[in-house]
Amino acid sequence: MGEYQGKTAVITGAGSGLGAAMAELFAGEGARVALLDIDGERAAAKAEELRANGTEAIAIRVDVADKTSVEAAAQAVQVKFGACDVLCANVGVQQFGAIDKLTDHDWDWVMSVNFRGVVNTVSAFMPLLRASEGQRHVLLTASASYFQLGARMAAYVASKFAVVGYGEVLRQELAEEGINVAMMFPAGMMTRHIESSMAARPEELGPSRFDQSDIAAMIASSDVDTAADLATAEDAVSNLLAELRSGEPYIITHGSYRHQVEAQQSRVLDAFARMEEAKP
Ligand SMILES: NC(=O)c1ccc[n+]([C@@H]2O[C@H](COP(=O)([O-])OP(=O)(O)OC[C@H]3O[C@@H](n4cnc5c(N)ncnc54)[C@H](O)[C@@H]3O)[C@@H](O)[C@H]2O)c1
After folding, report:
1. What tens digit of pLDDT does each residue of 91-137 get?
2. In this structure, are residues 9 and 34 in contact, taking their beta carbons and an 8 Å threshold?
3. Which residue, among 65, 41, 61, has the nearest Cα to 205 in the 3D structure?
4. CB of 137 within 8 A of CB of 251?
5. In principle, which of 39, 82, 83, 171 could form an S-S bond with 132, CB 3.0–4.6 Å?
6. Do 80 and 5 form a contact (C-beta atoms < 8 A)?
7. What is the 213 CA–ligand 1 centroid distance (Å)?
């Protein structure tokens, strides 16, 4: 009997990378799994793979930026599985670009997928989480970029700040219902993130841009060895079950950016100290 036997896990962005690794993890613990992705073919292939290993799995094509699409997916999950015990709002897309190069379309797209996509997902699945009992989790995928503020990543970083802000309040509000809310902060992973982001961007917003000079600027702005920090998605989820069990809000998956978190916190505390000295 696995830890999630008889439970249902719903994962967005489950056709690839981190979401696919989450799907495998929960399936391995006996959960039924619903794999949601804008790339319906990849989600279907992953679901097929899980079914071949004895998991009850379904794939649903969804665009998390489109509220009605996510609501339809929730309805399909309800019909098939009845409820939801673990909701992983995991989709995120990337558009690098210097502050003065990011277009209105870039901002709208990144915010609509990374931030509103999370809100749409949680709103649509909330009735299914409430229809269940016992251990329930909402897991939001933020990013180490929340702490490692890399150059050329303004839209992405801002969207992940929005995810964390939303997640903090969601955690407070769902605590009394016994639903745990956690946020994970993966550092770099060897996934299809850039490729799938480019494929997922709606045509009417114009093509996604990828420029090696943005990557170079991002790496140069960091004082950690970003290459050495890279992990596989499987490695990134290796402490996930234990972390969810802990009920703690923040999940660090891998990476060497601890000193940046400490430095940021100490700058906030220093600001308090200056204020207290100036206004005794
Ligand atoms: N790869 C990294 O280095 C890294 C680092 C930190 C955080 N993250 C975050 O991890 C999460 C997963 O990313 P990944 O690295 O596994 O990337 P990935 O590209 O391998 O997987 C993301 C999946 O999301 C899907 N997707 C994209 N837009 C969608 C939409 N509008 N609706 C539904 N599905 C959509 C893609 O088709 C893809 O299958 C994201 O939130 C990302 O921001 C990634």
Report:
1. 999 999 999 999 999 999 999 999 999 999 999 999 999 999 999 99
2. yes
3. 65
4. no
5. 83
6. no
7. 22
Q: Evaluate if residue 256 carries a pLDDT over 90.
A: yes
Question: How far is the centre of ligand 1, averaged over its atoms, from the C-alpha of 178 (Å)?
Answer: 28
Q: Which residues contact residue 20 at a Cβ distance below 8 angstroms, ignoring those fewer than 6 apart?
A: 14, 35, 46, 233
Instruction: Looking at the CA of residue 195, tell me the nearest atom of ligand 1.
Output: 19
Continuous H helices in 82-223: 104-110, 116-130, 154-175, 193-200, 212-220
Pocket of ligand 1 (CB under 6 A): 12-13, 15-19, 37-39, 42, 62-65, 90-93, 113, 117, 141, 143-144, 186, 188-189, 191-193, 196, 200, 233
Side-chain-facing half-sphere of 239: CA atoms under 13 Å? 13
CB 201 within 8 A of CB 207: yes
Catalytic residue among 156, 166, 250, 257: 156
d(CA 35, CA 33): 6
Return the best residue to mutate from 11, 12, 18 for the ligand 1 pocket (most ligand atoms within 8 A of CB): 18
Q: Is it the case that residue 1 has pLDDT exceeding 90?
A: no
- Distance separating alpha carbons of residues 87 and 225, to the nearest angstrom: 32
Q: With bands split at pLDDT 50, 70 and 90, how would you rate the model's confidence at 140?
A: very high
In 59-90, which positions are buried (b, 16+ CB within 10 angstroms) versus exposed (e)?
Answer: bbbbbbbbbebbeebbeebbeebebbbbbbbb
Q: Is 231 helix (H, G, I), strand (E, B) or coil?
A: strand
146 included as an active-site residue = no
CB of 231 closer than 8 Å to CB of 190? yes
Domains and CATH numbers, the chain: 8-278 (3.40.50.720)
Q: Look at residues 236, 142, 144 and name the one whose alpha carbon lies nearest to residue 183.
A: 142
